[in-house]
Specification:
It is a single chain. By secondary structure, this protein is α+β, with helices and mostly antiparallel strands. Helices cover 23% and strands 36% of the residues. The protein has a 4-stranded antiparallel sheet, with helices on both faces. Strand 4 and strand 5 form a beta hairpin. The longest helix is centred in the middle third of the chain and has 12 residues.
Length: 98
């Protein structure tokens, strides 16, 4: 599968937990469900011009939801937690975790 770097990274995940991880130089992104760790690493290095130390991925399962009498599910998605090399920062996130 040939994905462009901007197709691999869908959006940043900004939550309380991801804000705490930013203090440890770890950044969280929603990524394409078929992207592997190597593609994710290359995409982050190209888009943000940083050196990636490691990539951890998690498949977030869908949860059952109800809207009155109707049953459904939330969508499933893939999350990547990126650890950057020492001294590296992603400027896009600066101020988001504060």
């Amino acid at each position: 599968m040939n994905l462009v770097a901007h197709d691999v990274i869908i959006r940043p995940v900004v939550t309380e937990k991801s804000s705490r991880l930013m203090e440890m130089n770890k950044y969280t992104f929603e990524v394409h469900p078929m992207a592997n760790k190597i593609e994710i690493r290359k995409a982050v290095e190209v888009v943000f011009k940083v050196k990636v130390k490691s990539v951890h991925t998690v498949k977030v399962r869908s949860k059952p939801k109800r809207m009155g009498a109707f049953l459904g599910k939330s969508r499933a998605w893939k999350k990547a937690i990126i650890t950057l090399a020492e001294g590296e920062r992603i400027q896009f996130f600066e101020g988001a975790g504060a």
